[in-house]
Design brief:
By secondary structure, the protein is α/β, with parallel strands linked by helices. The protein folds into 2 domains: 133 residues, 3-Layer(aba) Sandwich (Rossmann fold), CATH 3.40.50; 107 residues, Rossmann fold, CATH 3.40.50. The chain is 41% helix and 17% strand. α1 packs across α10 and α4 packs across α10. The protein is globular, with a radius of gyration of 17 Å.
Length: 248
């Protein structure tokens, strides 16, 4: 039986998992949260690629047949990965294709430091004749990871980050954590601004793998299982019955 693996440092990929379950039904998923490791956005590129290679091989050994990297920071290192027996899909290419089809008149982007500094989105859109205004929104993912989706601190950070791009026609959410606070973000942009959540484009790509339904989901973490369970429910309304704490 086929099994889908979703990798993220934390709970951001739960946004992909939630939509995947809504759109594709009961395909078996193994979700891997790596909060016991250095945050992916803080790892050197080679270190990040090496860590992802280790996690991917671990999941393959556990029966995962297809892998999704549900994290923008980690997806910047896909080109440096070693060859693996399972197909691997990241979030960046689907996001670029989805946004290019929309053809925004004034495109903004918020993302983590690695994602923005890597230039991966700027270069890709430039090749398509599109310009983009990017903002590093690093504090947001950490707050959401802690289960915070409404505090005054979160709102202060949102206002600061979005102020220079608040009149964008569209803002690309270049972090899978951010869909958890879309309604908060709306308070700090023009009423006409639309947010682009690329999870739908990623799920469309996953659908082409034609994974079979059946089998239970499992959730693994190298960090704190209790904290992950609490944050997943607070941020995305996903209740996880059991999370296995592992060492990889």
């Amino acid at each position: 039986m086929n099994r889908l693996g979703i990798i993220d440092w934390g709970i951001g990929g739960i946004s992909v998992y939630r939509l995947l379950k809504q759109k594709l039904g009961d395909i078996p998923v193994t979700y891997f949260s790596d909060t016991g490791a250095t945050p992916y956005g803080k790892m050197a590129r080679r270190e990040l690629a090496s860590r992802l290679d280790t996690v991917i091989e671990y999941l393959i050994e556990k029966g995962v047949s297809h892998v999704v990297i549900g994290c923008n920071a980690a997806s910047t290192a896909i080109g440096d990965l070693a060859p693996h027996s399972s197909p691997i899909e990241g979030v960046i290419e689907p996001a670029i294709e989805m946004t290019a089809k929309i053809k925004p008149s004034r495109l903004g982007l918020i993302g983590g430091r690695r994602t923005v500094v890597s230039g991966v989105y700027r270069k890709a859109f430039s090749h398509r004749g599109m310009t983009i205004s990017q903002r590093i929104a690093q504090p947001l993912s950490a707050l959401i990871e802690s289960g915070d989706v409404s505090s005054s601190e979160l709102k202060t950070q949102c206002k600061r980050i979005l102020s220079p791009i608040k009149n964008s026609s569209h803002i690309l959410l270049a972090c899978t954590h951010y869909p958890a606070i879309t309604e908060v973000l709306r308070d700090f942009v023009s009423p006409a601004t639309q947010f682009i959540d690329p999870a739908a484009a990623l799920v469309d790509r996953i659908s082409k793998w034609k994974l079979e339904a059946g089998g239970s989901d499992e959730f693994l973490t190298t960090g704190g299982a209790k904290a992950m369970k609490k944050a997943a429910k607070a941020a995305f309304g996903v209740e996880i019955d059991h999370i296995e704490k592992i060492t990889v």
